Amino acid sequence: MNTNSINNLRLLPHFSGNRGFTIVELLIVIVVIGILAAIVIVAYNGVTNSANATKAKSNAGALQKKAEAYYSDVNGGNGLYPACATANGSTCTTGAFSTATGLGAIPSGISIGAANPTATNGTTTLRYTACGASSANNNSATGYYIAYWDFSASPAAVKYYVGGTATGSGGTGGNGNFTSVTCPATASTA
Predict the structure, then answer these.
(1) How far apart are the C-alpha atoms of 33 and 95, rounded to whole Å?
(2) 10 lies in some domain
(3) pLDDT in tens, 87-97
(4) Are 129 and 184 in contact (CB under 8 A)?
(5) Entry pTM
(6) In sequence order, what are the residues at sequence separation of 6 or more whose Cβ sits closer than 8 angstroms to the Cβ of residue 97?
(7) Average pLDDT of 89-118?
(8) Which position has the higher pLDDT, 55 or 84?
């Protein structure tokens, strides 16, 4: 071997052997990745709950606006609220929200259930209950409440919009955030 080759080898960095990651270094990286993943999952769940809560409250607000429009219309409610809400109008002959078009139409994407909404159906299902409704005249509701599922509450729970003779209590922020409701002479739930 010539002396130039030996001198060239001396100029190269000297390695004492193959160097890799130690088990401790690998475990630290895995723990850091796990912590970051946990933070991302928690943040995602919070955003999802907030989006679902916003959608449910928006749907309840849209139905409330329909009820108030019905109340104000001379040809519709004429100073009264819809007495019930049905999917096909078969339970109520007049004074009903329905899937039909026009003033009494349930806004699209919303369904009316007979029970309070839950976490499984709460983004699109609401409960409309008329207050002061007489069975003799379906178009005689003097008030109402709308139940929706609030995904962002801790713990998640039903919240209410109220109108007319219905009154709400509990919660913060006014109408749409009530945790309990009083509905005088409730005669119709749909």
Answers:
(1) 59
(2) no
(3) 444 445 445 66
(4) no
(5) 0.68
(6) 63, 66, 67, 70, 82, 84, 85, 86, 104, 105, 106, 112, 128
(7) 67
(8) 55
* Structure confidence at residue 189 as a pLDDT band (50, 70, 90): very low
Q: How many Å apart are CA 53 and CA 153, to the nearest integer?
A: 8
- The CA distance from 60 to 72, in Å, is 18
pLDDT given at position 73:
74
What b/e readout covers 1-21, taking b as 16+ CB neighbours within 10 angstroms? eeeeeeeeeeeeeeeeeeeee
Task: Determine the longest span between alpha carbons in the chain, in angstroms.
Answer: 116
**By C-alpha distance, which of 170, 179, 168 is closest to 131?**
168
pLDDT: which is higher, 131 or 139: 131
Beta-ladder partners of 84 = 96
Domain count, the chain: 1
Domain region containing 109: 24-189
Asked if the structure places residue 82 within a domain, the reply is yes
Residue 11 lies in a domain: no
Is 16 a member of any domain?
no
Is 181:140 a contact under the CB 8 Å cutoff?
Answer: no
